[in-house]
Amino acid sequence: MATLLAVICGCGVIHGKAGDQEGGSRPAGNSPSARVNANGAPAIATTDARGLYLDSLRRQALQPSINLVQEYYLERQAYPGGSREAVISGVDYRTKDVRLEKSEVTVENGKASVAWANWCQGRYQDWFWSSVGRWTQESDRCPSLTDQVWLNDGLGVGGLTPEQADIFVGHLADCKGLINARGKSMVERAGKQYVRLEIQVTPQVVGSGNPIGAGMYLDAFKYTELKADTHPYNLIGREVDALRIVRYIDPQTRLPVYSETQASGDGKWTMHRVEYSFDGPVQSRPRPTRVGIPQMTWQPERR
């Protein structure tokens, strides 16, 4: 991941050690996120999608644990239901207890199968290869640094203090033109109301280099002065990516329940679907003899 340079879009970007920028780090209480939350939650009816998204991102950052079901597509023609990575994951940021079940799903002639899978519960990471037909232990680090990205949704984070959450969200909010509202609506699913947010993340010019989009989330995390490899945190996709996000939030908790993130940049395209569950232990189950394909309950939006 390349080191980011100084930004001219109004957001401070770290070069080197976290917090090193002209004028010093911003006090946590001065962040836009802190101001929004100082007098309670922003009203859904009068707050635009951007404000609700940032508030939801902050609330997500405060959660001590998270369980997820995910799908990740690398080819537009495969979405939805085609070849993909399918993931079940969980992390408790207090105990560092983790769960990771990841399968590479291939679809040929309408039939889905698992080419390979890995399984992470406890210290060791096991792999399953369809050509072999059994599990083998291949790593004593669980999960790998690369796979840590699946422990959250690839943009947001959890396990932060209120001050750290204000810093993380505040730096994103301060970057002019980065996060923009595209739409907001109330929708019903299975008899329950949700707020559907549409967000556009537009890359911003960084110094004399390339515009940076999704990479700003990683940079905002650096200002918390936590270590990404041990907290853990990682960014899915590429720093230069523009993002189109659809995020459904619970109107009571303001936490996300489902999201779709379409990323594009450098001629590449990806789609990331996520279902969220908060405030519970990291779920686990015995490792199966043969692997199945994780299933999501939310239906994909065709975009």
From TrEMBL:
It comes from the Bacteria. Residues 19-38, 280-303 are annotated as: Disordered. This is Lipoprotein. It comes from Actinomadura physcomitrii.
